[in-house]
Amino acid sequence: MDHNGNGTFKDEVIYHLNNSANTAFKNGTDLNEFDFLAQRKSANPFYVADFDGYLRYLGRTCV
Q1: In this structure, are residues 53 and 35 in contact, taking their beta carbons and an 8 Å threshold?
Q2: Are strands 37-39 and 46-48 parallel, antiparallel or unpaired?
């Protein structure tokens, strides 16, 4: 992990968040209320575009 908190562990967490979001979407969940997600045209359209925003959503502060 580098001094900004980026690294393979964070990449792994984002990978699983993306998979979870797309599974929820495919099961009919409306994800448009989550500001930290973005959407693109693909088979798995949702992805975490703002990881710090995701942490704020969880109630965690970003250092």
Answers
A1: yes
A2: antiparallel
Q: Specify the 3-state DSSP secondary structure of 35.
A: coil
In this structure, the chain runs to a length of: 63
Question: Partners of 37 in the beta sheet?
Answer: 48
Is residue 29 within 8 A of residue 21, CB to CB? The reply is no
Residue 63 has pLDDT above 70, yes or no: no
pTM of the model: 0.86
The strand ranges marked E within the chain are 37-39, 46-48
Note the pLDDT tens digit of each residue in 42-61: 989 999 999 999 999 999 87
For residue 49, give the amino acid letter.
Answer: A
